[in-house]
Amino acid sequence: MEQNKIRNFSIIAHIDHGKTTLSDRILEATKAVSPREMQEQYLDGMELERERGITIKAHTVSLKYSAPDGEEYLLNLIDTPGHVDFHYEVSRALAACEGALLVVDASQGVEAQTLANAYLAVDLGLEIIPVINKIDLPSAQPEKVKQEIEDVIGLPAKEAILASAKEKRGIDEILDAIVKKLPHPKGNLDAPLKAIIFDSWYDSYRGVVTLIRVIDGIVSVGDKIKFLATGQEYIVEGLGKFSPMPVAVKNFQAGEVGFLIAGLKDPKEIMIGDTITLCSTPCEKPFPGFRKVKPMVFAGLYPVDPNDYPKLRDALEKLSLNDSSFVYEPETSEALGFGFRCGFLGFLHMEIVQERLEREFALNLITTAPNVVYKIKTTKGEIVEIENPSKLPEPHLIEEFYEPYADVTVFTRSEYIGNILKLFEEKRGKQKSFNYASKDTVIIQYEIPLSEIIVDFYDKLKTFSRGYASMDYVIGDYKEADLVKVDILVNGKLVDALSFISHKSKAESRGRIAASKLKEGIPKQLFEVVIQAAISSRVIARTVVKPLRKNVLAKCYGGDITRKRKLLEKQKEGKKRMKMVGEVSIPQEAFLAVLRVDEEK
């Protein structure tokens, strides 16, 4: 199809502002899906996506639209993941578009992710069409939201489209605006092939499938192509589009979007944001903005039943085929046995992977406390990345300690600002800006250590703001910090899976809370169980799980006191021997106790 009849666009919105429902209505309006086949959240095929109301895996769909002027257009809807953990994937999907629909809830107004994604789209030079959704709600305030879009984002919103995806209102106006207001692709058909990869997954029959947008040139079945980031070369075996069912095509021209199959067997050879070109006539420069995605949060996954280890290994292998950002490697723990150290983009990404493993592969797992990737400078001058606290060298070998920071943007009502500022101060945040978006809405920007926000920060933010605050963050740089490793010992034995890295100012209080929570989680034994938290060789907290006691004096109805003493001494010696050889079983609840050690502060 001619480039002037193609529109590549995305839908950007905060979570639960109606992005997926609007996608459903667009599919219906273009008759891409018959009424019999239609179902809610059509593009979100995963059960977890439907439950949580977020898009975990990006999708694309090519739709034919007959405009009121009689012309036929090809609309390529490039969907994006719906959470801050997938920020880089969102940026690459937006880079494949010329325009975007900015969907804002008529009752909630502009929120953190709305702002972040809108700025990302503006930076990439996209044309943005504001859409105010959910105007059917009794609490809807479309005029106020229009003003908010202008004041906060800086987009002219007088002509914003008022819509209700649920009631199918405003859909025709949206489609008309896509055709009239969004620019068409301007690729050069005669230039060497340049195509960007914005998603990939594994197919059992065809190997790795990549989603691409052709920037310049033409790619055809049978062409020999090259991936610029990896240098790998392959033959194109198949090309096609989702409409929304897959339809094979012979070639893609500049401006078109679809999937490419080239016989790849290993998903690790594909990098999101990489550029594809022809081996015979390569392009001079790759598409800008590519970077290698690195996991930022690490945690250990161990099977509760040691016999499930091979099953867990197979499950991780299958899951990583469809999620190139998820990494894992085998590790052994003295306390938990054989398991895997897994890397995730963020805390939500970790939750999703764990839940999918338990649901789809029927596994019962123990998850260790998540931690971020720290960096240390050794006394030899080497820079080392630390993904696991147990791998940290002795303190005398560390010259400098660095931790990753995040730039956090929070939207909230002014009445809750006191508690939220206090929360940021507790989490070692440094304020960057404080602005009023309107008379009762505040935008706060903070720089804060990533380790402080990956576990319970979002929950506390929602609690302090009664659910009204919204948050978005972007990973920043590493900064030097005064950090220490806190070890947990049970009966003098180090439980490596419970070690964690903490800021020195919080280490002692976190150690005490961890020890007391472990005391609650470990069941009573026939012998005394001593739980200690230690920094290096210095014990900072100690608590004891009292033993179960048998009344050995019950059979003594009388007689001399020496007989009773003899029985008590015998019991004491027995318990001492038992403590020396006895093994303490630590349940999953006790491991999870370390996960939220800040809760009782």
Write the SSE topology.
Blueprint (H helix, E strand, L loop, with lengths): L5 E8 L5 H11 L17 H6 L7 E7 L5 E7 L8 H9 L3 E7 L6 H12 L3 E7 L8 H12 L7 E2 L8 H11 L12 E10 L3 E10 L1 E3 L3 E4 L5 E3 L2 E5 L3 E4 L1 E3 L3 E5 L13 E4 L18 E7 L5 H13 L5 E7 L3 E8 L2 H14 L4 E3 L3 E2 L1 E5 L4 E4 L11 E16 L3 H10 L3 E9 L2 E9 L7 H8 L5 E11 L2 E8 L2 E2 L5 E4 H18 L7 E7 L2 E8 L15 H21 L6 H6 L8
Parallel strand pairs: 1-3, 1-4, 4-5, 5-6
Antiparallel strand pairs: 2-3, 7-8, 7-16, 8-15, 9-14, 10-11, 10-16, 12-13, 12-15, 17-19, 17-20, 17-21, 18-19, 22-23, 22-24, 24-26, 24-27, 25-26, 28-29, 28-30, 28-31, 31-32
Which structural class do you get from the secondary structure elements?
alpha+beta
**What is the number of independent domains?**
5
Biggest sheet architecture: 8 strands, antiparallel
Question: In CATH terms, what is the fold-level topology of the largest domain?
Answer: Rossmann fold
How many DSSP-defined strands?
32
| Low-confidence runs | 44-54, 578-582
CATH C-level category of the largest domain: Alpha Beta
Helix content: 25-40%
Reading side by side through the largest sheet, how are the strands ordered?
11-10-16-7-8-15-12-13
Number of helices: 13
Q: What would you call the shape?
A: globular
Tell me the β content: 25-35%
Give the radius of gyration: 29 Å
> Ends: how far apart?
62 Å
Mean pLDDT: 81
Q: What would CATH call the homologous superfamily of the largest domain?
A: P-loop containing nucleotide triphosphate hydrolases
CATH architecture annotation name of the largest domain: 3-Layer(aba) Sandwich
